[in-house]
Design goal:
Protein name: YARHG domain-containing protein
Number of strands: 0
Number of helices: 4
Order of helices and strands: HHHH
Shape: globular
Pfam families: YARHG
InterPro entries: YARHG_dom
Strand content: under 5%
Structural class: mainly alpha
Length: about 80
């Protein structure tokens, strides 16, 4: 069984909104330029440097966290 990170446990307790926020906070921290109005309102685009999510330089740990959060969002039918 896969051990979930503390951030994902928090998302499970807080629901879809928390999972979405945590996932996008990782991208923001690494310089992603958001496209959706929701993400721009939440995080802004000041100082962003990466237009494509595939180009964002994430560590192995961050990639694992993002994957876990996405899996949570899919399994609970969270809006994208």
């Amino acid at each position: 069984m896969l051990a979930l990170s503390a951030g994902v446990f928090e998302a499970r307790a807080g629901g879809c909104e928390d999972a979405w926020y945590q996932r996008n906070a990782i991208y923001k921290q690494q310089g992603y330029c958001f496209r959706t109005p929701r993400a721009i309102r939440a995080f802004g685009n000041a100082g962003c440097t990466y237009d494509a999510v595939e180009d964002v330089p994430l560590s192995a740990r961050q990639r694992a966290q993002v994957a876990e959060l996405k899996a949570y969002e899919q399994s609970y039918g969270c809006p994208q």
